[in-house]
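queue> pop job 88
queue> type: inverse folding (structure -> sequence)
queue> payload:
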């Protein structure tokens, strides 16, 4: 069985993005079904897998990183509305026995992601 993890790093400060809320959705027939909401710890990680092995299923998922609240806490001088607020990353998990790691690198004006290990 597989599982899903994430890690959020603030590239503007060079620090982990602590206390960021992340929602996990499963996409079913173009509908987003909320599975859970988690919050990053001081290392920018979630305490345990977002989707543990026993809940893993092949399919299309979406992580919604609530970056706006985090960015406001880091820099009160950012103009409203923020350039980035909620960052959705939709991805497929096709391998039953695999670990999927979806990290987010963020700054107030850009982000990147990839399939990590």
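queue> result:
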């Amino acid at each position: 069985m597989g599982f899903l993890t994430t890690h959020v790093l603030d590239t503007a400060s060079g620090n982990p993005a602590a206390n960021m809320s992340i929602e996990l959705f499963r996409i079913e027939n173009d509908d987003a079904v909320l599975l859970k909401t988690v919050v990053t710890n001081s290392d920018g990680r979630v305490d345990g897998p977002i989707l543990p092995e026993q809940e893993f299923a092949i399919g299309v998922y979406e992580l919604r990183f609530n970056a706006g609240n985090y960015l406001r806490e880091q820099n009160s001088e950012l103009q409203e509305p923020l350039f980035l607020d909620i960052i959705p990353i939709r991805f497929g998990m096709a391998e039953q026995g695999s670990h999927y790691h979806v990290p987010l690198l963020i700054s107030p004006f850009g982000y990147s992601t990839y399939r990590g290990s």
